[in-house]
TrEMBL record:
Entry annotated with the keyword Transferase: yes
Organism: Noviherbaspirillum pedocola
Keywords: Transferase
Coiled-coil residue windows: none
InterPro entries for the chain: CoA-transferase_III_domain (IPR050483), CoA-Trfase_fam_III (IPR003673), CoA-Trfase_III_dom3_sf (IPR044855), CoA-Trfase_III_dom_1_sf (IPR023606)
Protein name (record): CoA transferase
PANTHER family per record: SUCCINATE--HYDROXYMETHYLGLUTARATE COA-TRANSFERASE (PTHR48207)
Pfam families attached to this UniProt entry: CoA_transf_3
Domain of life: Bacteria
MF terms (GO), sorted A to Z: CoA-transferase activity
Amino acid sequence: MHSTTANDAPLKGVKVIEMGALIAGPYAASVLAQFGAEVIKIETPGDGDPLRNWRKLHDGTSLWWYVQSRNKKSITLNLKSPAAQEIVRELVKDADIVIENFRPGTLEGWGLGWEQLSAINPALVMVRVSGYGQTGPYHKRPGFAAIAESMGGLRNLVGYPDRPPVRMGVSIGDTLASLYGVIGALLAMHHVKVNRGSGQFIDVALYEAVFGVMESLLPEYAEFGELRERTGSSLPGISPSNTYPCRDGRYVIIAGNGDSIFKRLMHAIGRADLAEDPRMARNEGRVAHNALIDGAIAGWTSANELDHVLAVLEAADVPSSRVYDAKDIYEDPHYRARGMIERHTLPDGAPIDVPGVVPKLSATPGKTEWLGPRLGEHTDEVLSKLGFDAERIAALRRDGVV
């Protein structure tokens, strides 16, 4: 596999200033950092990003922090201080991208909003992530992923119809907003650098990031009055695609919803009658008889152990999978072969395995240069590059600015 260097990183020379905390804004900056951008993360003195203390900790620091903040430089600034605000303005002068996820109006109150920063650097691209966007009647409300997933239509579809909606196991609303932020930043930067256009800001609302991936949810309602509801483990309107029990108490996911795949699946489970039934030749016919098909598949899987089920389906070229947990992922040879589990070292020398970089570029792939930094680890370095001498930096520290 090609090994990227500082000279061939695709975002080499791109400077990113990150202001914000937790997931949505910082994860967007993390993606850019993994592909060579210099990301300067601004944190509050003393406490830093709350993510440093979320979930499982190693020696007082979150493992999540080490992963999400890889390749970033951490500086501390008290953004309520006029002196710190001036430092931000200095940093922005030659920055390409600013990423922030404060509640709308917060940066403007500090003199660091879009109008102020773009006046300093007309080529600047600013990614603004918030719960509801920078405009609209809800824009001043606080917003988190859980709320966005509800308003965006996702939560109503997750779970079983006879039970309350449930959350996905990760903060998918934040992650979707992050990825839209990255896409927007790269589009806007292309416009500046290739089209010779001016800078602009990208307004990413968490709920809109969720709504943007809701497939045909809205047009089905607008055209037919159809309200898509929770369907448990099945895929509505697509047959067969479901989760089926095996004899050993484990489960298998089977997606046999292609016309030719369905025939192979039915032959594999000994139901040639269904494979050749003309009613089942197309998806619409199978949907009409979904209960019959699911019953046939579940009857077969229930009589066999998971490993046997997977072997038979692989031989028949039918898409299928066990339901992976972290242990399954950790032991899977395909993950290893594709470099999706990387080993690094924590500050105390302990080894740690972290997810690999996505996506994979053939000539200039991303890379983990270092794990999430100590709070303020790069403050002196960054300020020195702005022309601050040691005495001035010490004074800022005494005054609580950094």
